[in-house]
Amino acid sequence: FCEESCPVDSIVETRIFEYHFEKRGENVITKQQLLAIGDEHEKQIAADRAVDARYR
């Protein structure tokens, strides 16, 4: 996986997979939008990474 080979935390796999797009072209997400999603779910992501840490 890209997440495992990346030397920094720039790629993170999460349980967040529910995206919905109404119009063609909306499915392109900018860096700022991705960062906003990460900020919104920061606690969940941190908890999941803590649980997964023993396997890394």
Features:
45% helix, mainly alpha, 3 helices, 56 residues
Radius of gyration: 13 Å
Instruction: Report the sheet with the most strands, covering strand number, pairing sense and barrel closure.
Output: none
Number of domains: 1
List low-pLDDT spans. Answer: none
- Residue share in β-strands: under 5%
Helix content: 40-55%
Number of helices: 3
Distance between the termini: 13 Å
Topology:
Layout: H1 2-5, H2 31-40, H3 42-52
Textual characterization of the structure:
The protein is mostly helical and 56 residues long. It has one domain (15-55). It contains three helices and no strands. The chain has helices spanning 2-5, 31-40, 42-52. The chain is elongated, with a radius of gyration of 13 Å. The two termini are 13 Å apart.
In short:
The protein is mainly alpha-helical.
